Amino acid sequence: MNKYTPPFEITNKMLDLVASIMKKIGKLDNYKDLSKLPILRRNNRIHSIHSSLAIEDNSLSFKEVKDIIDGKIVVGNQREIQEVKNAYKAYEMMKQINPYSIKDLKKIHGIMTFLTVQESGEFRKGNEGVFDGDKCIHMCPKPEMVNSLMEQLFDWMKKNKNTIHPLILSSVFHYEFVFIHPFSDGNGRTVRLWQNILLSNWENIFEYVPIESQIKEYQDEYYKTINNCNLKGNSTEFIEFMLKMIDEILESLMESTTIEANHISIYVKKLLNIMEEQPAMTTKELMDKLGLKSRLSFRKNYIDPALANGLIKMTNPEKPTSKNQRYYKV
């Protein structure tokens, strides 16, 4: 079989969106140092998981998804609860995955669909189609073609990863993956995570950019655009759509990070600047470094707000006023 090249065109709209995205990435200085924004980082991860699963008809609310991730008991559909646990484990592995490895793709799918899909971590062995009601709007390639098509898609990515912009390449992959539909189930949530893996391999901030939330907002357009591309035989429209989603979510992040960064006082920023993750430091050590005399002022302006924002932790949280208490940066 001849080597496959995904059909698409580079348009002025794509170039404008790529330029806009690059400009926003450059402005997200606060977001690049995510250690200063742990609450935002965690919430964005939960938003990614909740939105991606909701697109696939998981009915759990954002709060329920958060509670499951926090280890709390949630009463609900056991399959849906398992999907959340699976997705969280898969997203936590993002930086350990080679985005150009089919073996790693199967591994992530196996984690994402653990105990919920019979052919977990394996390419499908049966025919699949996409239906709108009773009408089949896309007949996926036959199962005997899947291995070859996926190998060609990954070979194309590896060959072009240094010549095609990652924003465009990852969007092409997203569409082609959906078209091939390599797994019997779990394709959507897997490919949305995989695009994040591709992008975070290029720019670290994408590890916690909830692109899935933006797709959820435009879910009908997402599927309509995929169907349009199926009819046209190229992914140009889908690439433009995904670039628009990325551009818009980065715009939202610029607003939210500015708000959150402004909520961190100058006192807390000074505290974080003199702290290390380890070793933990006593109140006296911290006050000496900051040149402070008043314990009351130190607790009110520095320690309490830093603890409240999840920026530092105590070595002995069970006894917050212990004379042996130490603090470390998260």
Overview of the molecule:
This protein is mainly α. It folds into two domains: 12-262, Fic-like fold (Orthogonal Bundle), CATH 1.10.3290; 265-329, Arc Repressor Mutant, subunit A (Orthogonal Bundle), CATH 1.10.10. 61% of the residues lie in helices and 5% in strands. The chain has 15 helices and five strands. It has helices at residues 12-27, 29-32, 38-55, 62-69, 78-92, 102-112, 143-160, 166-180, 187-202, 211-217, 219-232, 236-263, 266-274, 283-290, 295-308, and strands spanning 129-132, 135-139, 281-282, 312-314, 326-329. Strands 3-5-4 form a three-stranded antiparallel beta sheet. Strands 1-2 form a two-stranded antiparallel sheet. Strand 1 (129-132) and strand 2 form a beta hairpin. Helix 3 (38-55) packs across helix 10 (211-217). The protein is elongated and about 75 Å long.
